[in-house]
Every structure is written in C-alpha cells, then in structure tokens.
Write the structure tokens for this entry.
Amino acid sequence: MSPLCLDNLLPDYIKRFEAYIPSKPDPELVKLYGCRQLYRLNNNENPLGPPEAAREAIAEFPAPRAAVYPSGDAYYLRQKLAEKFNMEPDQFLVGNGANEVISFVIKAFCESGDNIITADKTFAVYEWVAEFSGFVASLVPLKNYEFDDQGMLDRIDDRTKILFICNPNNPTGTYWNTGRLRRFMDEINGSKIVVLDEAYFEFVEAEDYPNGLSLTREYPNLVIFRTFSKMYGLAGLRIGYLAGDLSVVDAIRRTCIVYSVNSLAQVAAVAALGADDHIVRTRSMVRQGKEFLKRELSRLGLTFVCHEGNFIMIKLPMSDTLAYRKLMTQGVMVRAMTSFRYPNHIRVTVSEMEAMQAFIDALEKILP
Amino acid sequence: MEDKPHPNRIGLPLCGLDLTIRGRRTCIQEETSLPAKNTNTVTLNVRANPMFLHLVTTFVEKSAIAFGLDEPEALSLTLATEEIFAYLCQSSSPDREVWLRCTGGGYYAEEEFQFEAKDFSMRAFNLTASPSVDSDPELKETGLLIASRMVDRFRFSQQDQELRLVLMKEKSYPRFSELPAASTQPLKEFSVKAPDPEELKLLVRLLNLSYPAHLVPMSFRFPGKVVDMVASGDCFAIVAADRSGHLGGGALWRWDGPKLVELYGPYVFSHEPDSIMAQALVEHFLGSVAKSSAVGVINRHSTPELPSEYFESLGSLTVPQEEGPPLTVPAYYRHLEEDLGITIWAHHSLREFLRKEYARLVFAREIRLITDEGESSSSYSVLSAEFDRGSSRVTLRPVWWGLDTEENVANHVRILRDEGIGGIFFAMDLGKAWQSRFTPAVLNAGFEPRLVLPYAGKGDVVVFQLAGGESSR
C-alpha cells in the first residue's frame, strides 16, 4: 500500500494552521505543578458564578429532559432577548458560545479569495476562524492599545467582507465611543459587514460607551456579538448570541448549526437575563479589585494597561511564559500574553479580594 | 492498492511493475504544522529491482541538476542514491516498493527514500562502520557506508513499519567578502522589516564582520546561501533599517523540528548596551512566531545585545574556537506557550540531573524511569552524526537501539577525537523511551549532561557534551 501522504490531502491553509490546545483540567494542573489550590485568573470568568435565578434554573432542570433535543433555535431565549432589547426574535441567533457565531458570520459572507480585517493584538478567534476556513485575516496594529479605525479603513480592498472590532478590546480594555463608532460606520457606508464583539459589554460603566444593539437600527450592516460566558457566569454551558438587522441575520442563519446549544444552557440564559443585581454586584467586585491591583502593581513598580472589562494586562520584567509557570507553582493561573503578541505581558482576571491578594503575593515572590 | 490515474501523474505499466513519475512546484511542509516551504519536488515510485537502477540514478542526477546543484554535487547525490538503491535491491524481494522524492530547496537538493523497514540494516550508517571482506552480510553494507559519506547530511526516521531515509547535498557558495560592506554607526530611528535579497546579503556581510565566528553559524557565512535559504522558507530574517536604507542590525531564525525555533542574534552592529533595537528585533521575532506551531525558542548564538528579560538561561556549552582556548557560551530559551506539562522517559542515572534542571527551569514534568526486563533487543545500534565542520562540532543522535551500544558510542568518540573534532555532543530525546537506553553508554564514554532543551524533539532533549573533548582547532 502506498504511504499516506497528508501533504496531498490537506489544504494549504489547514497545513499552516496550528491547533489550539486548551489547558488541562484543574486537578491535573494542581498535580503537575504541585500546588495546593488554584486561583483561575486566566479566562476572565466571573468568580461570583451565575446569577441566583440562573442557579435555580440549573438546579431545577429535570434530568429526563436531557433525552430530548433542545429547542433548535433557542426559541424562548430569543423571545426573551427581543423583549429585553426591544427587537424582533428573528434578529437574534444563538450559538454554542460566541465563538460559534464567529464561524456563522464568516461562512455566510466569505468565499474563496475574500478577506477579513481585525487587529493584531485582540481576541484571536476572528483570525483563527478566518484562516482555518481558507480566508486571509488582515491584521492592523493597535494604536495606543486601541483599534486603529483609519488603519482598518485603509486596509479595505474589493475582497474585504467583514471587519471585526472587539469593543472593549480584549486584552487592552480600550473601546471606541459612540461618536468614533458612528464615524467609522459612516465611512464604511454599508459596503462591508462590521462585527462589534461586545463580550464584555455588561462590565463597561463609561457613559460614552456605545450600545451596539441600538445602532443596528441605523446601520443594518452592523452585527453584534454578546456572550453569557463572562458577566453571566455561564462559561461552562457555552452560550452566546449575535444580533443585527433582520436581512443580515436571515443571511447568517443559513450557515447556522441548529441544535448546537443545549437545553440547560438555554434555560439558564433565559433566567440570567433579568439579573440586574448580579451585574451591580459583579461591577462592584471588579471596581474594588482593579483599585487594589493598580495600587499594588504601582507599589511593585510594574506598568499595566487597565481600562474596561474584568481584566488587567501587566508588563513584566521577565518572560510571561516563565511567569506563568512560576505563578502556577504558587497556585495562581494567569494568561501569558505572548500568544496575543504581547511578549512579557500577562493578563489577569479581576476577581475577589482573596484571589487578588494571592496573586500579588505570588507575583512578589517570582519577580526577579 | 490500485494506482488510480491522476491528472498530474503519468502511469507507466512496465514489465508488470508500477512505475509512476510526477513532478510539481509547490509549497510543502515537512511536518504538517511547519511553515510552508517554497520547494520543487519530483517523485518516483518503483519496485526494488535492479532493472530500475539506471532510471533511479538518472532521475536523481537530472533532478539535482535541475534544482541547481553543480555537476560534482549532483554526482555525489547520485552515487549515494545508487548505493542505497542497489543495497535495497540486494537485500529485499523485487516486490519491495520504494518511494523516492527529490526536493530542491534553492540551496540544496534532498533525496528521500521511503520503504518498508523490514529486513533493512541501518548499521552501515554508523560513522564507525567499515567495509569488511570477511563476511558477506557486512560486505553488502559497504555501499550504504559510502553513501552516508557522500552527502552533507543524512537522517532517518521510522514510523510503524515505514522507514524514511533522507540524503541532503548543498550547493557551493562563495564565502562573504572581508571588505567592509557599509558603515555601522547607530541609527537615530529605525523600523524592523523583512529584508530584500540585497539587504539580506548586506546583513550577512555585516554580521560576519561585526561578530566573532562563534556567534555566527557556518551557514550564515555565505550571503548567497542565506538568500536562497530565506527564499526556500528554510530561514527567516528581519533587519532594523532607517529611511535611508542603512542597516543597524538584524536577526535570523530557523525551525529546528516542528516545535522549536532557533534564533540567531539579535545582531546590533553598533553594539550599544541595553539597545532598543535589540528589543525591537526580539519583539518582532516573537510576534512572528507567537501564533505558529513553535512551542519554544532556543538561542545558542546569543550576542551580548540579547535582552535577557525575554529569555531563560538554559545553561552553557563549551565550544572550540578557530584560535585560542575553547569558549563557554550560554544557551538561552524562551517558551512561547503556557506549559501544559509532559511525561518524559529517563534512565535512573540521569534522574537527579533532570530533577534539578526541571526545578530550576520550573517545567512540570512527570519523570518515568525506563526498565530493562530481559526483553529481546537488536544486536546492533545506530547513531547519526551531524557535522558542523566549520565550527568543529559534531552532534550524535540515537537512530537505533542495540546490544552493542556501549561499544558503538565509544567507537564514535574515538573516531571523532581522531578526526580532531573539538566539540562532541550527544542529543537524546526523552520523549522516546528507547533513546534513554543509551544513557549508561553515553555517560561511560565520558559525556556529561549539559542542557535540557524543552520540546526539542518528541519530548525534551538532553544535550550531553564530551568532557575534556573541547580542544582548540
């Protein structure tokens, strides 16, 4: 038999692509690094967990319903979203985490030879999905830690289909205000799809921060991503959504995988949506944590980037991946930022004070 | 398996044997996750039958010339191929299928054999193998010995029952000019970018003139060769230049297997301490490889300008110099990912060294000890030897474990010492349990463990150096 020649079978864009390998489960990491406990400060999860109403919905979920397929299009959740945001249910598409809806949009609008535009130092999944789908991801360098609007406009060519903007940006926390976003949308003038990823929307307290959903009425080419993984503490259930103009969402729906969102996630998300007190408590915790971190990091002589969102990025006088390993031995798990093209930086989830103190104590021990 | 027609493939039924020839210009990857290489390949699929010997040698010779080798180099590769194919014909049934792939990578031509490993003796690829007229089986191996010495590099790999044998021959290039290439004053402002071919040749000349030989690998002493290496995707380069085109420095890197990148430099011609340029070059380099399949970066040619806060100290190696006593040079490493921890295999005599190194480097490792429980083994072992004659260094690597390992390693050391090699190294992949079986023989031959290179092979690689072998050249 002739030897298997993957070289002839794999598309070039798959050969070039490197699979993402997620970290091991916590018990395995604890064993490997010999620590007693682990503070997870790497994924910007909410340490307060889901809102009370969502907890109750999860606890009351009848086990026999696991045998029944979920609502294929998250019917009740879309009703609830429409009611909350004064839109039509069909203006929403629910996915298995916001990551899935990124694929829906790219598949809907891109064909061979097309490209997308985003930033070089932002959430990596836009770039990944484009590349492993065979499309070029054109990466515009951040300017002063912010998405560079003019730089992105200058990159547009005839084959550009989508521009992805992370607002606020992960990992820098910077955002475009309403005026800046409007000017950008006016320049685009409906010629391209603009995706505004608002994964950290509920954390932002700045008054000039735009509400993307309301802007979709004026800009039908604007698509909004939101997630239940961050503020609403449902990361383990994987549920997020996109919203936009009816015609655009109808086009995207053609590439949408139905039944990909499980029933438990759907009922928990419906319950979570009304939990405004949860948002207030979480914002308060983040505010307190940020103040503490800024004070302590300044005391240690470290520079940091801290804007919106429940995270802070810190510049270290050492390799971030080495810092990651050393912090793991102290029971603190952060995000090493070389993979975000920020070498010698770490990103830390702002959490409860016990975890923040543990992080600072560990950091002091490992700094050269 | 039926050989189905293919638009790019010509099927020639010949004497009941399948013969196919195909050629293409393509971007290929040696491993699926490596960056694409800009190479030309032609392939030939034949049975191991002497009637095809002339076809095989003609295929290789014509391919090598088409790929840019001069006649003498092409002839060497052809003769090596002839010896191997003849040996295959002698040592196996005429039904054995052999896949040959000749690849032209700009600065080299490479011949790859792929065939069933059964009944094939790799013993002759030992540097120590010598022709013997006393017994027929060893006489058969003489051809392979000749082949192994006709090429610049050879390497083996085995997966399941398939053996891959790769012979490589490089083109000849003129050495860099000793004449000053350009001024090297500090630049007031600069940007980092990929150089065009003329800038790249200038970079190579300048770094050879600005840095001692031990900081410049032999491959980088030939400007034209570096241009071809970059064009083929085998090497990557960046330069720091001002708007007038003056070069202030640069850095180069190459992949060393699917998970490791070797960085050379950063070279900063003004030799400013705490150079912003050095930091900019390193950051640009890290940005280039951060989202690749590379897990780590090694730097064994670190310049004084290397910004140490970006790297971890692995240890040091002692290297011979062209003049003067041997030098102790540091080796630096940088991990690119959040380490997930791995299991490695080790002989008990190496456990303490590894335990200390992993604690110092803060790498989570489960060390599993190998055992010998009376299982059958091959009667012979095989080592590959990778020469860097310009630097008077040789790196030995295990290819095949066998009962004569102790004697084989000792013989290799003797031959290399007789040849006056100044730096003799042994690289052992701890991700492959069988390689750890070489440990007692390596230690008994006088090697000392010097470095652990994380993820440099299937697992981590331990680099041993022969103690007291670091003579000057």
